[in-house]
Structure formats: C-alpha cells, structure tokens
Specification:
8 helices; 2% strand; two-stranded antiparallel sheet; mainly alpha
Length: 259
C-alpha cells in the first residue's frame, strides 16, 4: 500500500512539473499574463495555481516515466508546445502595437516616446494607446478564459507523454508571424488613409497659397485628424481583436500534432 501511494505521488509530481512547463510560457509571451505590471512573484504563483488546476485533466490516462532523462525531454517538449501556443497570442498584440506605431510615424506622435507600462519598452503615444485599448478589449471579451481553455485543449491534442510534430509547429509559427504587418495595416488603415488625404490636401494648398506656412499649420491639423479618426475607428478595432483572438487560438491549436 505504501509503495502504491509512493508511485502515485511520484506520477502526480512528475505530471505537475510537465504541466507547469507547458503553462510557464504563457507568463513569458502571452498578452496580459506576461505584463510587466504584474510582479514576477505573482506571475509565478498564478502559474503554479493554473498548473494545479490543469494537472488532473492533463494526467488523465497518462503514466509519466520516472526516469530523469526521459522526464527532462518531456519538460522540453512541454515548453515547446507552450511557447508555440503563447507565441500565437503574442502576435495578436504585436499587430495592435505595430498599428499604433504606424499611426505615430505618419501623424507625428513618434517625436514623443514614453515607457510602455505593459512591456517596459519605449513607445510613442498612439502605440501605448492601442496597447492599452487592446488589453481592455481582451479583458472585456474574456480573452484570458479563451487562452486558458485553449491551453487545456493542448493536453488533448498533444498529451503530456507525447512529442509534438516540430515541422507543424514551425509552419504554424511562420504563418502567424507573417500576418503581423498585414494585420497592423488592417487596424491602422482608416487613420493612414485619412492622414494621406490630409497630406495631399496640404500639398495642394501649398501650391495655391505658397506664402502659407504649411508646416506650422499641418502638424496640429494632422494630430487633430489622427485623434478624430482613431476615436471613430475604435469600434472596428474592438471587433477585429475579438474576431482575431478566436482565429489565433484556432491557429495555435491547429498547429499541434503528435509526432
């Protein structure tokens, strides 16, 4: 009886380590979970709590080997699966911040950069605004629950004791990464088009009225146009984030196959 309990405890502990290895990348790459606004100790406690909750689901019907070398290999495979899933989620927010950066460059906001509270990096005004707005929409639509459900689904697609198909993971990551710039253009398109029309209009005015100081008038006008169009396009951005989140979760899960 004592030997049986010892074996069960060993299997549970090894399984918990494997689950924690798959959950940890969420707190390194995934939006919100990896935010610098959350202290590292809190993120660690949250990772352990989520792993404890997912462990029974992940260990169902699984026998984790007790060999240290085999367990280390499974930990690396779990980290690979976790990073693949978290990377797909991180690309979504990278596209949103890239859209803000494009608006900053075209409108002139890029002259003033501040510390981004979400990543700790220096970024301009609209980039931070889009990042904070995307975070708010992410929380409103329950994006954290979407990600946790998707993470739980990974244990069914690639069980703890199985290895993922590397070629499928690489192809999925490449496909997701290739959509960053396209997605950023989709988000920033209304603002970029409005600012382009504004530039053309000022170019025509400068030809008709050459004595007008276009640079003195154009900069505040472009800022006003950018703010107006950004405010008008926020519902579109919110709808895009909501649709893209489900697409990103589906793409991340679709790239997971057992080798």
């Amino acid at each position: 009886m004592t030997e049986l309990l010892s074996r069960l405890a060993g299997n549970e502990l090894a399984g918990f380590i494997l689950v924690l290895a798959r959950v940890t990348p969420l707190f390194v790459l995934a939006p919100m979970f990896s935010s610098k606004m959350i202290p590292p100790r809190v993120r660690g406690i949250a990772a352990v709590g989520i792993s404890i909750g997912l462990a029974p689901l992940a260990l169902h019907g699984q026998h984790v080997p007790a060999d240290a070398l085999a367990l280390a290999g499974l930990v690396l495979e779990g980290l690979l699966v976790g990073f693949s899933f978290a990377f797909s989620m991180a690309v979504l927010f990278a596209a949103v911040e890239t859209a803000g950066s494009l608006v900053d460059v075209v409108s002139g906001f890029s002259y003033g950069s501040l510390i981004n509270p979400l990543s700790g990096d220096r970024s301009a005004v609209m980039s931070q605004f889009y990042a904070l707005f995307g975070t708010a929409i992410f929380l409103i639509i329950g994006g954290d629950a979407w990600m946790l459900r998707g993470l739980g689904r990974t244990f069914q697609l690639v069980p703890l004791t199985s290895a993922p198909q590397i070629t499928s993971l690489v192809a999925g990551a490449e496909q997701v990464f290739s959509t960053v710039f396209t997605s950023a253009l989709e988000i920033a398109a209304p603002v970029l088009i409005a600012l382009l029309i504004t530039d053309v209009a000022f170019g025509v005015v400068s030809r008709v009225v050459p004595q007008l100081n276009v640079f003195a008038v154009g900069f505040p006008t472009k800022v006003a146009v950018a703010l107006l169009v950004v405010g008008a396009s926020l519902p579109f951005v919110a709808n895009w984030i909501s649709n893209q989140l489900s697409t990103s979760v589906g793409a991340a899960l679709g790239a997971l196959h057992v080798a």
